[in-house]
Specification:
The chain folds into three domains: 4-99, no CATH class; 106-288 and 394-447, Rossmann fold; 292-390, 2-Layer Sandwich (Dihydrodipicolinate Reductase, domain 2). By secondary structure, the protein is α/β, with parallel strands linked by helices. The strands form three sheets. Strands 5-4-1-6-7-8-13 form a seven-stranded parallel β-sheet, with helices on both faces. A four-stranded mixed β-sheet has the order 10-9-11-12, covered by helices on one side. Helices cover 43% and strands 16% of the residues.
Length: 461
């Protein structure tokens, strides 16, 4: 004999009462169909369609319609009990969503609490507090908004950051990113001591004294915090440290976004490990929303579009923060990344990319692009462009998009490299694409399947 509790859970009248606040005039099976339409199971079928779109670029028509009780009376009793159970589960899901108990947040972990992390956190706080969408390419991406991001773990080696809350740590020296006036970062997550490895070389150690605390078990802390995404914001040239955090993220089932030039996502063996584990991987080397690389590439693409032939190309970046101080000694991976990003557009033209550390420049980057080209009749054309910006919030605008895509891929159990996202947001992706082609694929896979209320759209013919 079934217990009263079990009986109540499968009682159609009880389901109708729970759902409509005592309205008995609503047919229970009809409610069951409606709940199923908005339930997790319906969403999973829509997400199965998403996988088909990714692989075959084909979209079947899937839809659910309310089923009148009159047409269901001849169904087997077992089928009716199953439908009632589905309706009950859907109702509980709706109650959880309305109460805020269902976790729709993106639980973020950060490796390296420097200037980039500081600008990222200030930007998230800005969009959360002011409900602003200006400056965002996608206010809602893969069903998530920027306000859905919350930091649950952070790792660093600096004495003045470890043991402090993130709200305090991001303002400790040598951080000098340009503050956003009127925005307060209220993140209370305490910065933990990560392993140093090659993340704080001698030339940086003069600026960043290390914490005497013992390093924590990063993999265990990622598991304990239930982090969804780990973003790598370590100093350029941190090869061992980046590989360590990538391994820890993969072991903890945490998506990994490599924002620095260290070659990780481009390595086939790393791609294969993340793919087998079912964990998303994005890299390498973040493009700013409007940085020197994307501006330089756009100018070269414009020349090609108009039939001009580049003869010489030069890009010089000057700055006064710790990133540029680090480039004096460890610019190899950064320069290689920039050269790779330009290679397909420059072809056989002479080219130069350089970085210069100038303490008087402060946190701003000053970039100078010069291009010499020829057009019809061998006529020369010279372009000179100067760009001044704070690289940190400029890059954070791309990072928040990658965080949301990484979480959505984790939701869908899509492991390995997400090529369209890497091609659009990274300087050195595993597979190169033109900006417009990468954007089209990105929109087809991660924007169009969702409506702006964050729910997957039903497929159309």
């Amino acid at each position: 004999m079934r217990s009263a509790q079990c009986k109540g859970a499968c009682d159609p009248d009880r389901v109708g009462t729970l759902a409509y606040g005592g309205r008995k005039d609503v047919e229970p099976v009809q409610f069951g169909a409606r709940c199923f339409q908005g339930s997790v199971l319906a969403q999973e079928i829509s997400l199965l369609r998403l996988r088909i779109v990714r692989r075959r670029r084909w979209s079947p028509s899937i839809s659910f319609s309310p089923v009148p009780i009159s047409s269901c009376r001849s169904l087997f009793a077992g089928a009716q009990r199953l439908l009632c159970a589905l309706a009950t589960l859907a109702f509980l899901e709706i109650k959880l969503m309305n109460s805020g108990s269902l976790d729709h947040h993106i639980r973020l972990a950060i490796a390296g609490v420097g200037n980039c992390a500081g600008s990222l956190l200030e930007g998230i706080a800005y969009h959360r507090e002011r409900n602003q969408t200006q400056g965002l390419l996608f206010p809602v991406l893969a069903g998530y908004s920027v306000a859905d991001i919350e930091v649950v773990a952070a790792f660093d080696v600096a004495r003045d950051k470890v043991g402090r809350s993130l709200g305090e740590a991001i303002h400790q020296p040598p951080n000098n990113f340009v503050r956003n006036s009127g925005v307060t970062v209220r993140e209370s997550t305490v910065v933990m001591r990560g392993p140093t490895l090659d993340g704080n070389p001698a030339h940086l150690a003069r600026l960043v004294p290390e914490s005497p605390r013992r390093p924590v078990d990063v993999e265990a802390r990622l598991r304990d915090s239930h982090a969804h995404v780990l973003v790598n914001l370590l100093p350029t040239g941190s090869l061992e440290a980046s590989a360590f955090y990538a391994q820890a993220a993969m072991a903890a089932g945490c998506a990994f976004v490599n924002c620095i030039p260290t070659v990780l996502a481009q390595r086939p063996e790393i791609q294969e490990m993340f793919s087998r584990k079912g964990v998303p991987l994005l890299g390498d080397d973040i493009k700013s929303q409007l940085g020197t690389t994307i501006l330089h590439r756009t100018l070269l693409q414009m020349l090609r579009l108009r039939g001009a032939r580049p003869i010489r190309s030069s890009q010089i970046n000057v700055g006064g923060n710790t990133d540029f101080a680090n480039f004096v000694y460890r610019a190899e991976t950064k320069l290689a990344s920039k050269h790779k990003s330009m290679a397909t557009l420059i072809e056989d033209a002479e080219s130069h990319v350089g970085h210069h550390y100038d303490l008087t420049r402060g946190p701003y980057k000053h970039a100078f692009i010069d291009i010499e080209a020829v057009v019809f009749g061998g006529s020369p054309v010279n372009l000179s462009v100067r760009l001044e910006s704070d690289d940190k919030p400029n890059s954070a605008g791309s990072v928040v998009d990658l965080i949301r895509i990484a979480k959505a891929a984790l939701d869908r159990r899509l492991g390995g490299v997400l090529h369209e996202a890497c091609a659009f947001y990274m300087k050195s992706p595993p597979v190169e694409m033109a900006e417009f082609e990468a954007l089209r694929r990105l929109e087809d896979i991660w924007v169009k399947p969702w409506s702006y209320d964050g729910m997957p759209r039903t497929a159309s013919k």
